[in-house]
Design a protein that fits this description.
Hypothetical Protein Yqey, Chain: A, domain1; elongated; about 170 residues; mainly alpha; about 60% helix; 9 helices; 2 domains
Length: about 170
C-alpha cells in the first residue's frame, strides 16, 4: 500500500471519529475565525488548526510516527473544536440540522463511552420514567456542560410522556 494513501486514510479516520472533551464555540471562533464552505475540506484548508483530541496536528499523522509509537489510537480521536468548525461549515451551506448534530457529537466527547451507552439505553421507549430522563438531562448539562444534548433528552422526556412511551412504576 502506498504510504501517502495510508497517511491520507489515517487523517480521514482522525477527522471522522468523535471522542475527547467538550467544546466552547466562542473559543473556536476566536482561535480559528468563523469557518465557512470556503474552508472545506478542513484537512487541506485549515490543516494548521485541525487537531486530534490529544492535540496532535494533522502533519504529525505520518506512517513513521504510527510505526514508532508517537501516534497511538487515542491520537486518532477528533477534537471537539474540529467538530465545531465542521458545524460552522454546515451552517454556511444552510445545513442547520447537520450542524446541530455535529455540536451534539462535540458535547458527547467529554462523556465516557460507558455512560453514553447507559444513556442510550435509557432513551429507548419504556426504559425510563420522566424523572429519570430529566435527571439525565440535568447530569448532561451540569456535569458535562452538554447543553444541546440535555435539551434533546428533555425534549424526548416530553414526547415520551405525550406518546405514552415512559416506563410505568
Amino acid at each position: 500500500m502506498d504510504q501517502q494513501l495510508l497517511e491520507k486514510m489515517i487523517r480521514e479516520v482522525m477527522l471522522s471519529m468523535a471522542k475527547g472533551e467538550s467544546v466552547n464555540t466562542n473559543t473556536v471562533t476566536k482561535t480559528c475565525g468563523t469557518t465557512t464552505k470556503d474552508d472545506y475540506p478542513l484537512s487541506k484548508k485549515k490543516a494548521d488548526v485541525v487537531k486530534s483530541a490529544t492535540g496532535k496536528k494533522l502533519d504529525e499523522f505520518t506512517m513513521e510516527n504510527v510505526m514508532n509509537g508517537t501516534i497511538g489510537a487515542a491520537d486518532c480521536r477528533i477534537a471537539p473544536e474540529t467538530l465545531e468548525m465542521q458545524a460552522q461549515v454546515a451552517e454556511s451551506v444552510n445545513r442547520h440540522s447537520f450542524a446541530r448534530n455535529l455540536r451534539r457529537a462535540a458535547e458527547l466527547i467529554a462523556i465516557p463511552d460507558a455512560r453514553i451507552l447507559e444513556i442510550y439505553n435509557s432513551l429507548r421507549p419504556y426504559r425510563s420514567t420522566k424523572a429519570e430522563l430529566l435527571a439525565i438531562a440535568d447530569e448532561l448539562e451540569g456535569k458535562y456542560n452538554a447543553k444541546v444534548n440535555a435539551a434533546f433528552v428533555r425534549e424526548a422526556a416530553e414526547l415520551y410522556e405525550k406518546r405514552d412511551r415512559l416506563r410505568k412504576d
